[in-house]
Structures are given as structure tokens and as C-alpha cells.
Amino acid sequence: MKIIICDDDLLWCRHATALLEDYGKSQRLSFEVLAVTDSEALFSVEGDAPDVAFIDIRLQTGDGIAAAQKINELWKDCQIVYLTNYLFYATDVYRTEHAYFVLKKEFPRRLDEVFSKLLHRHMQKEMKLYFQMIGGGQRSFPLREILYFERETRRTYIHTVDGKFGIWETIPQVNELLPKEDFVRCHNSFIVYFPAILEMKERDFLLRDGTIIPISRAYIKRTKDAFAQWAARQMS
User: Fold this and answer.
1) φ and ψ at residue 166, rounded to 5 degrees
2) Quick one: which of 83, 143, 225, 228 is 20 to 30 A from 195 by CA?
3) Read out DSSP for 28-61?
4) In a 10 Å sphere around its CB, with 0-12 CB exposed, 13-18 middle and 19+ buried, how is residue 33 labelled?
5) What is the reported pLDDT for 218?
């Protein structure tokens, strides 16, 4: 795993590097840790894109949140962890796709939590689901490309970032195949992927692509509970 630390405090960079290297050894994880002190150096790193970027929000030359936005654009598979001394930035970071927000003083004792989440998200990016296609054959779908499942008449459709595909599995059969922490059945005819959701309203979900998915009365309590639990995991 290639990790980069971006922080204008050189002493903190050295301290964080040592913490990460020691943690990697203790967990038998292979880490390559690099440290830079400004966002210009961050985007000048040679070789493969980093898997994880630990970024300070306040930099002497540049803005950590702006750097994270650029990472979202350039290195789509790079996970971001914000490290800061200032809790009042907590809401600002939600303008970017990131995995964690940690106060620097808490970083050593929260390494297990941080990497548990990073490794889970990495698994999500690598995981594929297999379905029997209407028309013949079997096809794999990367988990991260799924938006939702829909039952329409006697067919089930999987909606992805690349389009809509017909599959033979019923909604209950699909539900059994899915990781429960990442999906919720919110209606007899719909299952939604939590990361695809932009907003939960009283009786529907607004997805990031603009689609509105209904939440039926029979499913509303379990759906709200499941979404609240998923949201809490994203903010922890």
C-alpha cells in the first residue's frame, strides 16, 4: 500500500511516518510511506498514484481541502484521511470524498479504526458481484459501479454508472447476495447502494445521479435505521 502524508509540519510528518511504518509492521501490512510538506510536492510524486493520502487541512502553501478535491479528480482510487488540530473544520471536509477525519492528538490510538475503514473501502472497490443475465451468460459488476436494483414486471434490473442491465435473480435473491452493511431494501421493488445516495428524505432517496428511489411504508423504519448506522460509520 502506497501512503503519502501531506503536512507542512516537518516534525509531524516524521512522527506520522514512524507511526504508520510501525503499525504496518505490527499488522503485517506492506506500507510504502512518503511525506511532503505542500500540495505542489504532493502532485509531483513519481510512480503509481498513492492508495491513501493523509492530509492536513491547513497548509502554509495551499489548502488541504482543495488538494483533496484535486485528488478526487486525478486519483479516483486514492482514499483520503484528514489529519488536523482543529475540530471546527469537520463539516468543511464533506465537500470532498474522504474516508476519515482525525484529530492529530488522537491519531496514534485510532490507527486500528482508520485502517479497518480503509481496508473495508478498498475491499468495496475490488469486490465484484455476479448475476445471471437475461439473454444468456453470467456477468460481473464491480460493487462501486452499482447504484440500485429494481424489479419491474417480472424482471430485475441492475442500474449502474454504465447503464441498466436485466438479470434473472429476484429482489429477495439479490438481497441475499449483497453485503448487508452497504445495501438496503427500501421497497418491495428496490434495493439501494448506500454510497450512491446523495440525500435521504422522508419517503425517498435522492441518488447522486439524480434518480429518486421510493421508500415504502412497510420498509421505512428498517431503512432509516440502516441508513443512520451506515452514515455514522462514515463519520466516525
Assistant:
1) -85, 135
2) 83
3) T---EEEEESSHHHHTT--SSPPSEEEEESB-SS
4) buried
5) 95
CA pair distance 36, 94, nearest whole angstrom: 23
Number of other CB atoms surrounding residue 8 within 10 Å: 17
pLDDT at site 236: 54
Q: How far is CA 13 from the centre of its chain?
A: 25
The mean pLDDT value for 58-66 works out to 76
| Nearest CA-CA partner of 35 in 67, 1, 10, 58 | 10
pLDDT exceeds 90 at position 73: no
pLDDT at 80: 87
| Residue 153 Cα distances to 3, 137, 140, 146, 191, angstroms | 48, 21, 23, 21, 16
Nearest in space to 101 (alpha carbons), one of 85, 113, 112, 90: 90
Residue ranges of domains in the chain, CATH in brackets: 2-125 (3.40.50.2300), 127-235 (2.40.50.1020)
